[in-house]
Amino acid sequence: MRTYLVTGGAGFIGSNYIHYMFRKYGEEIRIINVDVLTYAGNLENLKDVEDYPNYTFVRADICDSEAITKIFEENDIDRVVHFAAESHVDRSIKNPEVFVKTNVLGTLVMLNAAKAAWELPDGSFKENKKFLYVSTDEVYGSLDDGDNYFYETTPFSPHSPYSASKASGDMLTKAYFDTYKFPCNITSCSNNYGPYQFPEKLIPLVINNALQGKALPVYGDGKNVRDWLYVDDHAKAIDMVQEKGKLGERYNIGGHNEKQNIEIIHIILDTLQEMLPDSDPRKALVSEKLITYVTDRKGHDRRYAIAPDKIKAEIGWYPETMFAEGIKKTIQWFFEHEDWMKNVTSGDYQKYYEEMYKNK
């Protein structure tokens, strides 16, 4: 049985990855989920798998080298998928220090623990071990409104404390391969969306606010462009890179779904109007009148666009979910999980875990 160590598995992308892996491999794998449970970590995301005999949750901080080393010493880890990160740009602008600590120091701790566990006396590494660092397209900086794209060879040019901290962890991982031939890969993904996404992010924020008739804030002119990737497509890509990726290589994972932010909001409003029955009183609340333009974010990148040519050519992955389909699936999920959204927006999920772990 192959054992996976997933960091940040109680977060949005991490929890979706865990669900994907159990759907695909079932009892053939074991997953150890390490998460410190910050505001973005929610074990409700994993209620369906928490009782699986081949699933283990460990509450630990990736910056705690003693705790992380202990996990490696007590388990024969085959794969590390390193999601854990502070990821919200606005929060990084207000408090860069926590981003540097988690995204840089935390990555260093993970690399050192895996290296110590996997390295042989001659400096080589045990077979069939691999570490995957999940990075972001934001490390590349910003594109203009032309036809250019981010490639794996695009120079780094991060513009926010968040993207700078992710670029640092990214380069540390690359340095471990270059220096030690440490068995690793790096993936840089575009904006993810789908189930379990924390509602400070654009798509769940718009869905939640629109259904309540609340303002829909739009930075600047709303014409900043992002490439949107359905989270299950991302999970599949990560699995394929882990199994087929050439050691030391970076792979861009993009959705071929470039949209302006204001376009995303209009699509969500139109889709809500289409999906809500006439009998639902929330349908009358969903309106373009809710759109509210606000002062632009500091250092706001104009456009991100990933070219996933390399991962398609070398590994055979391509995005399967176009935005029109993915947004309907996402909205339907939120319709079916209104209690989840209420618990997150009220903060009740945090109170529950604080009580659960206060004596541990």
TrEMBL record:
A single GO BP: nucleotide-sugar metabolic process
Catalytic activity: dTDP-alpha-D-glucose = dTDP-4-dehydro-6-deoxy-alpha-D-glucose + H2O
Pfam families associated with the record: GDP_Man_Dehyd
GO MF term (any one): dTDP-glucose 4,6-dehydratase activity
Alphabetical UniProt keywords: Lyase, NAD
Record domain NAD(P)-binding: where: 5-330
Cofactor: NAD(+)
Name of the protein: dTDP-glucose 4,6-dehydratase
Taxonomic lineage from the root: Bacteria, Bacillati, Bacillota, Clostridia, Lachnospirales
